[in-house]
């Protein structure tokens, strides 16, 4: 491929700023078609973003000869079917996180990509952002010594601002999302943990519903033992008071600790010698660095930035924590 000509399936809220505009800002990349089941909304998106074509049928977009790569940004329920359809058409796929509803579906998607020998990437885009790459660099440099444990807290009040607002609130319908808000936010965090600390030895967790007006788990606690001996402990709760909201990840080592938020822009490094902070500017399009790497991979100019196998691990951890 000399140019990646993208078609988006599911041009909803996520694609407005986070991802969609980036496809035209990356070298050798162009957004040529979008699809949404609501034809009026598909046409409106295409008009506002200067996209040449729009569809209200995913199969038609997949089979458009001008489209040679597919970005799937629908709710998770449709990820597996659309991914496999695109792969069978011989078109590489970049699919949103969570990869799908559960680990079994993620394995089927990965198997299909391998069997058909068509490329598949998953949008765990924090892997490519400067702030999280800096954390990886600091860990590799042993700035805080040997890593001992990680404590993660994601505490939010009902209807948190971190969650994109949609008319039907599908994120709390497990048949569509795979679970509750945990399934929307935890993929970002758990993928980074495996990106930083490697292979998982064992994982376990508990999940429960504490609010009566919801049909999904709103509190999840999980633990991971990595093969290198690092221990992770995470808590996600979506029913705390507004003043108790928290977004923190602290990595403790033998010489100090590194703390950072998942939805913020500052890293703090504390050792017995000093305290240092690193601040980062917000990205105009949070997925652009990842899309750059995906384009390079699709053009055989770089490695896969997040494979189906990588994302399966995250799906398996979520299944382990929620005891699916």
Automatic annotation (TrEMBL):
GFO/IDH/MocA-like oxidoreductase domain boundaries:
132-258
Q: Name one Pfam family in it.
A: GFO_IDH_MocA
Q: Which domain of life is it from?
A: Bacteria
Q: Name one GO molecular function term.
A: nucleotide binding
Cross-referenced SUPFAM superfamilies, in alphabetical order? Glyceraldehyde-3-phosphate dehydrogenase-like, C-terminal domain, NAD(P)-binding Rossmann-fold domains
Which residues are in the Gfo/Idh/MocA-like oxidoreductase N-terminal domain? 4-124
Under PANTHER family, the record lists: D-GLUCOSIDE 3-DEHYDROGENASE (PTHR43249:SF1), UDP-N-ACETYL-2-AMINO-2-DEOXY-D-GLUCURONATE OXIDASE (PTHR43249)
What protein am I looking at?
Oxidoreductase
* Organism per entry: Pedobacter zeae
């Amino acid at each position: 491929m000399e140019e990646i000509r993208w078609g988006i399936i599911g041009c909803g809220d996520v694609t407005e700023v986070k991802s969609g505009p980036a496809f035209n800002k990356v070298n050798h990349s162009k957004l040529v078609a979008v699809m949404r089941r609501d034809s009026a909304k598909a046409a409106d998106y295409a008009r506002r973003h200067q996209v040449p074509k729009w569809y209200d049928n995913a199969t038609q977009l997949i089979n458009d000869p001008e489209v040679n790569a597919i970005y799937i940004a629908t709710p998770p329920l449709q990820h597996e079917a659309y991914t496999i359809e695109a792969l069978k058409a011989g078109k590489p796929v970049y699919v949103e996180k969570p990869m799908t509803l559960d680990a079994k579906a993620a394995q089927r998607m990965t198997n299909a990509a391998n069997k058909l020998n068509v490329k598949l990437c998953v949008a765990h885009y924090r892997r490519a952002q400067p702030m999280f790459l800096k954390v990886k660099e600091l860990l590799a440099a042993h700035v805080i010594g040997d890593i001992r444990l990680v404590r993660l807290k994601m505490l939010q009040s009902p209807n948190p601002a971190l969650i994109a607002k949609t008319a039907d609130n599908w994120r709390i319908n497990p048949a569509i999302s795979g679970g509750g808000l945990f399934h929307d936010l935890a993929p970002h965090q758990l993928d980074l943990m495996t990106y930083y600390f490697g292979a998982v030895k064992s994982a376990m967790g508990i999940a429960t519903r504490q609010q009566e007006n919801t049909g999904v788990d709103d509190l999840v606690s999980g633990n991971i033992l990595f093969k290198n001996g690092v221990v992770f402990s995470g808590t996600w709760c979506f029913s705390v008071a507004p003043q108790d909201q928290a977004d923190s990840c602290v990595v403790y080592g033998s010489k100090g600790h590194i703390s950072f938020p998942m939805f913020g822009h500052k890293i703090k490094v504390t050792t017995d010698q000093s305290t240092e902070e690193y601040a980062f500017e917000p990205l105009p399009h949070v997925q652009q660095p990842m899309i750059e790497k995906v384009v390079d991979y699709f053009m055989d100019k770089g490695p896969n930035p997040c494979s189906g196998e990588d994302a399966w691990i995250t799906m398996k951890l979520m299944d382990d924590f929620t005891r699916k």
